[in-house]
Amino acid sequence: MNAPAGPPGRSAPQAPPGRLAGEVALVTGGWRGIGAAVARAYAAAGARVAVNYPPGLPAAESGAAQLAAELGADDGRAIACRADVSDQAAVRRMVAESESALGPVSILVANAAKSERLDWTDISEDAWNHVMAVNVTGTLFCAQAVYPGMLRAGRGKIITVTSVMVELGGVRALHYVTSKAALIGLTRSLAREVGRHGICVNAVMPGSIKTESEEELYPGTSDAIAERQAELQSIPRRGFAEDLAGAFVFLGSRESDFITGQVINVDGGWIHY
User: Fold this and answer.
1) Alpha-carbon distance 129 to 124, whole Å?
2) DSSP 3-state assignment of 52?
3) Which residues span the domain enclosing 218?
4) Annotated catalytic residue, options 42, 53, 147, 176
5) What is the pLDDT along the chain (273 residues), one digit of tens a residue?
6) What is the CATH number of the domain that holds 160?
7) Total structural domains in the chain?
8) Is 176 a catalytic residue?
9) Residues in Cβ contact with 128 at an 8 Å cutoff, skipping those fewer than 6 apart
């Protein structure tokens, strides 16, 4: 079976322009891939957006600056903000910078992630700790940093990003998959902690999504992945970052105010429960 050609997900309808009017969103790892697609969707729906990028990576700094300019940096509607999310002090500075420029953060998308391919027997202590520090501890630090503002407002949305590989397992990705499983526990426990304050915490679980990081991890295999996904999914095509945007917009909007502690699977029908 041949997978349909072209990227249909990239022409998905955008949210109504005012759906997130008045909201301020911080998107970690927002300089490319899923994060960039979410930042664009949020801006199109009326939110002001802080685009986070990691230090020490010129391409990330350039990408974040370009995206912020696209989203309205000149009009005070977007900024690029640097921070290693595994550094608690840097996260606090990033949130302070974002709130000074755009207003209190009402939506956090904890999307920043570290991934690498290693045989499980070759995972060193440093490699394990780094993946956990970015993917899990970084999510905690970001949630802690935006919490005071959300508490004062009596509302807020925290959205984590897990992976369909939690359900499937994965070869040469044990530390990454373990970290993404941990995020589900973090999401559900945090939802219990903050729900009484009007703050909702949910996770999005992407399936096989074509992004720059996928190309880095699996170079030259896009066609093979697309062919395989056509056989596995109910919707027989590759997923694109833009295909996820609607779920993030919904979870960031007031329409999801009675939804918390949930995992929203966006995988084209790969996994059925």
Assistant:
1) 8
2) strand
3) 15-266
4) 176
5) 344 434 444 555 566 678 999 999 999 999 999 999 999 999 999 999 999 999 999 999 999 999 999 999 999 999 999 999 999 999 999 999 999 999 999 999 999 999 888 999 999 999 999 999 999 999 999 999 999 999 999 999 999 999 999 999 989 999 999 999 999 999 999 999 999 999 999 999 999 998 877 777 667 777 787 788 888 999 998 899 999 999 999 999 999 999 999 999 999 999 986
6) 3.40.50.720
7) 1
8) yes
9) 175
